[in-house]
Amino acid sequence: MFVYIAGAGAMGCRFGYQLHKAGNEVILLDMWKDHIQAIKNDGLKIVGDTEDCVKMTIMEPTEATKEAELIILFTKAMQLPTMLQSIKQIIGKNTKVLCLLNGLGHEDVIKQYIPEENILMGVTVWTAGLKGPGVAKLIGKGSVNLQSIDKNGEEAAKKIVEVLNQAGLNVTYDEDVLPSIWRKACVNGTMNSTCALLDCTIGEFFASEEAIRVVDTIIHEFVMVGEATGVKLDEQAIKDYVMKTSVAAAAHYPSMHQDLIQNHRPTEIDYINGAVAKKGDALGISTPYCHMITDLIHAKEHVLKIK
Ligand code: NAD
């Protein structure tokens, strides 16, 4: 299959690398000039569970011309509209677009560019990191759940599942993916922002009763808002999942800590706790914890002079 990875950061490199190794034609699209130059000069270097270096095609989004069969979106949430605007020329009437970003509400942005029968929404628990320009660190195993948002796109989506599985990406076609997307958002909404604000690991944060009260309240706000938008969510099952994840990832600093505290980059807060606060306002549901956490992360961005 002819695949573009729109946003070739850590996760884009993982998916691009695995699809390339499985024999697909893959083009990476990115805006980070040093990263593009490093991959053009030396290839994409893979470290971690596997050591490898592969020659891959990478360019800026506006340089791409050939119509895509599949575009996998892997920007940060706030980069998504600019990316979609910059790749309009490679989107044909049969181009499928798969979104695996963390966070909520991306389908509303994507629908402005792509017909609904061509949009696949999903969630992944694969992980990846960038060690620097052109170097991706890939550790551990993961999986993907995805669904076409329109029944008419289901058959084509299942073919894409096959292609991704041939690349070892462990993908399931999910008849109702929204609960999984919201459950992952609950994981991010309870540990990303809090560990970034408190400058601690997941295990350090989850060690106190007070923290667990905060976690429970955030999950409750997510569930109230999610259910009001028609997503079926089991609050106790989500709490259990979050607690289990916190144990498995206890030693880690979550990605928002890495972005905000370690690298002074903007965060995806508006698409996680911020999205719940905004949807809650529109629905008349009170979400004071999500509001406060969103405001505090933005305040911290301001303190650190991050634009
Ligand atoms: P990333 O930060 O690695 O890359 C996103 C974009 O930022 C890319 O275009 C990349 O080139 C650019 N970028 C990265 N470092 C940069 C730097 N120092 N200077 C300039 N530009 C830089 O993002 P990611 O981790 O691949 O995440 C993409 C999406 O996938 C997000 O929505 C994220 O929440 C989600 N996600 C990430 C993981 C993970 O383990 N990384 C897991 C699941 C979902």
TrEMBL record:
Keyword terms of this UniProt record: NADP, Oxidoreductase, Pantothenate biosynthesis
Keyword NADP set for record: yes
EC number, UniProt record: 1.1.1.169
GO biological process: pantothenate biosynthetic process
EC top class, as a word: oxidoreductase
Protein's pathway: Cofactor biosynthesis; (R)-pantothenate biosynthesis; (R)-pantoate from 3-methyl-2-oxobutanoate: step 2/2
Catalytic activity annotation: (R)-pantoate + NADP(+) = 2-dehydropantoate + NADPH + H(+)
Every Ketopantoate reductase C-terminal domain range: 176-301
Alphabetical list of Gene3D superfamilies matching this protein: N-(1-d-carboxylethyl)-l-norvaline Dehydrogenase, domain 2 (1.10.1040.10), NAD(P)-binding Rossmann-like Domain (3.40.50.720)
A molecular-function term among this protein's GO annotations: NADP binding
One GO CC term on file: cytoplasm
Domain Ketopantoate reductase N-terminal: 3-150
Pfam families in alphabetical order: ApbA, ApbA_C
Similarity field: Belongs to the ketopantoate reductase family.
Role this protein plays: Catalyzes the NADPH-dependent reduction of ketopantoate into pantoic acid.
Name of the protein described by the UniProt record: 2-dehydropantoate 2-reductase
Source species of the chain: Solobacterium moorei F0204
